[in-house]
UniProtKB/TrEMBL annotation:
<dbReference type="InterPro" id="IPR052541">
    <property type="entry name" value="SQRD"/>
</dbReference>
<feature type="domain" description="FAD/NAD(P)-binding">
    <location>
        <begin position="4"/>
        <end position="143"/>
    </location>
</feature>
<dbReference type="InterPro" id="IPR036188">
    <property type="entry name" value="FAD/NAD-bd_sf"/>
</dbReference>
<dbReference type="InterPro" id="IPR023753">
    <property type="entry name" value="FAD/NAD-binding_dom"/>
</dbReference>
<dbReference type="Pfam" id="PF07992">
    <property type="entry name" value="Pyr_redox_2"/>
</dbReference>
<protein>
    <submittedName>
        <fullName>Flavoprotein reductase</fullName>
    </submittedName>
</protein>
<dbReference type="GO" id="GO:0016491">
    <property type="term" value="F:oxidoreductase activity"/>
</dbReference>
Amino acid sequence: MGKRILVLGSGVAGSIVSNQIVRKIFKELQTGDVSITVLGTTDTHCYQPGWLYLPFDLVRNEELKRSERTILDPLINFIIDSAKLIDVKANKVTGVSGKIYEYDVLVIATGSVPRPDLIPGLSEAGHWFHTEEGALKLQAALREFTGGKIVIAMGVPHKCPVAPIEVTLMLDDYLRKKGIREKTDIFYTYPVGAVHTIPAVAKWAVPVFEERGIRYETFFNMKEVDVSKKMLSSLEGSSVEFDLLISIPPHRGASVITESGLGEGGWIPTNKQTLQMEGYKNVFVVGDTTNLPISKAGSTAHFSADIAVENIISVVRGGEATHLYDGKVFCFIETGKSQATYISFNYSNPPVPPPPTTTVHWMKLSYNRLYWLTARGIL
């Protein structure tokens, strides 16, 4: 019997890893010396960063979706049957169907999901853009909005660290184009003592906020929403009224991770260099599922996948995981006014965003179109 690679999750991390493995050990897969199976929850693959553009009528939702089967290489056995229980000691996974999947090497890429239910009242009164349903709901609310107070608030942790800044500045631009910015008070809140956790981003954002008339309050951690009064309160004791509440809900990892006892909150303890689950040489963790001290973002999944693939192949062939991930992350930051900037950093070097330009904005829009090549392991 050939060596069996099992990948849990068919999002960006799972898809990149699977497709890159095929490209690197194509002959071994053809001969049956190695097999690779991907378990996914759905056949629809979504470009998640694209949901940010949907509320502002900058993209159509159908542009952000593809069939997962068309993304994965034909040599990959793709099964729609999400994991119900992961037994890393016995080298097996139980699917929701009840089927048992045994493996020699396991790749866990189960991702993270927004959990508005963790903040009382947020599901009823809030809006978000991290899912298709949420983005469409926010799109409808913005189309009907004619003025008032918009509060932007976020829970922790959450994916895409610069999303709070992006949605705020894109909102400002959207309202100006709509001709109702002067009728709107944008009030931005953030959980720590700055407008962003990355000091360089916070330093850059403050004068931009002040120039555009965006008010802000720091040390504001969402506690609950009074739906009838349209009032958001914080753990710190302050409260703010709103006409429209745009939130970034707290995110958590997949429930199967906690239910299998692999990590609190759905985050698996992961070696930050080899990307192996702590204590298990044949289990790799990529994408949002790790507990790495870096951003949960698409680029993190991409850059870490490059390293994970090399180590997975080495372990499959009986070797050791010798390739080391340096924590590389690259994030575009949409700033409105048809401009964008970016941050690039790793475990050792903090980011410093350059001034926004139109060129970077178009680079970001271009990548939105090229993403499907990334998912296929090409770009």
